Structure formats: C-alpha cells, structure tokens
Amino acid sequence: EYIATYDMYIFDRWGMKLFHSTDLYQGWDGTVNGRICQEDTYVYLINVTDNLGKKHSYLGKVTLIK
User: Over the range 51-62, which residues count as b (16 or more CB within 10 Å of their CB) and which as e?
Assistant: First the structure.
C-alpha cells in the first residue's frame, strides 16, 4: 500500500539481464526462457518509489542452489 512503483531486475555475473518484473508479488523462480539457471551467484537490483515520491534502490546478491 506504500509502494507507488516497483522494478526488480536479476543479472548474471557478466551483467546480462535475466529477469525483470514490475509486480511486487512476482519473484524470480531461477529460470530463464523456461530453463533452470546454473548454480551461481546472481545480482538483484530493486528500484522502488514510495507513495510520497521518494525513490529507494536496493542492490545485492542471491545464490541459486539446486
């Protein structure tokens, strides 16, 4: 209720975009084009604008384990 806009990106270690979502409730399932990605560490970038118009960015890593 406090989020006006939301963008989440997942990148591989070389910076290639693997996933993008503007749906706050849709997470990445570890696949690209229907194929499961290899075990590795991936980078996420989340950009949010709150209901007051303030922008927030979150950058981190997620490790995919099968």
Answer: eeeeeeeeeeee
Q: Tell me the C-alpha distance between 7 and 4, whole Å.
A: 11
- C-alpha 14/C-alpha 43 separation (Å) is 10
Which residue has 């960015």 as its token pair?
Answer: 57
Question: What DSSP state is assigned to residue 39?
Answer: S
Q: How many contiguous H segments (helices) and E segments (strands) does the chain have?
A: 0, 6
CA 24 – CA 13 distance, rounded (Å)? 24
Strand segments (E) across 1-66: 3-11, 17-21, 31-32, 35-36, 40-50, 55-64
pTM, rounded to two decimals? 0.90
Give residue 66's pLDDT. 84
